[in-house]
Design goal:
This protein is 65% helix and 0% strand. With 172 residues, the protein is mainly alpha-helical. The chain has one domain. Helix 1 packs antiparallel against helix 2, helix 2 runs parallel beside helix 5 and helix 4 runs antiparallel to helix 7. It is flat, with a radius of gyration of 19 Å. 16% of the residues are buried.
């Protein structure tokens, strides 16, 4: 259990490292530091819970919006109006995060990425034969199902954005 304490320490090191609070090509915005702290905390949480997922104690769940998108990524049945398209796009953005928009180049938090890689290495070392354990416990097939559903959700979002553009819907 002591190894679970390493991840928050690595996250704190990443945040205090020189250049950790830098963002993008423009001046740092007031909310950037808060966002980076939240992102680092989320990454640390994912890393810390990975062994629990690997042994099947914590189940992977697919969000309803992703399940719906995976069922019919290119269906136009439920999106007859611009309001319906915007609503579905909003649901997908909530789960998938923001979509790509041109001109938003952000500088990567290098110190945070190094700390994250270090944390993953430590956690992955806790479970010998991790790949085999994940297959036996069902964690690997569940992750593959989640990844396939997420791929379909990304395709759905792209389809909906194209549909909105074609129908000249107002931006959200």
């Amino acid at each position: 259990m002591a190894s679970f304490r390493i991840v928050p320490i690595i996250a704190l090191i990443a945040l205090s490292a020189p250049g950790a609070a830098q963002s993008g090509t423009k001046a740092q915005q007031p909310g950037d530091t808060h966002r980076k702290i939240m992102d680092t905390g989320k990454a640390a949480g994912r890393i810390a819970t990975q062994p629990v997922q690997d042994v099947g104690v914590k189940k992977i769940t697919i969000p309803p919006a992703v399940q719906k998108a995976a069922a019919a990524p290119y269906s136009a049945k439920s999106v007859r109006t611009c309001a319906q398209i915007r609503r579905e796009l909003g649901d997908l953005d909530e789960v998938l995060g923001p979509d790509f928009d041109g001109g938003l180049a952000r500088k990567e938090n290098r110190a945070g990425k190094i700390a994250e890689a270090g944390g993953k290495t430590v956690v992955n070392a806790l479970i010998p034969f991790r790949g085999l354990v994940r297959e036996v416990t069902g964690a690997a097939p569940a992750q593959r199902r989640l990844n396939a559903a997420l791929d379909a959700a990304y395709a759905r979002r792209g389809y909906l954005r194209g549909l909105a553009q074609m129908r000249k819907c107002r931006a959200r």
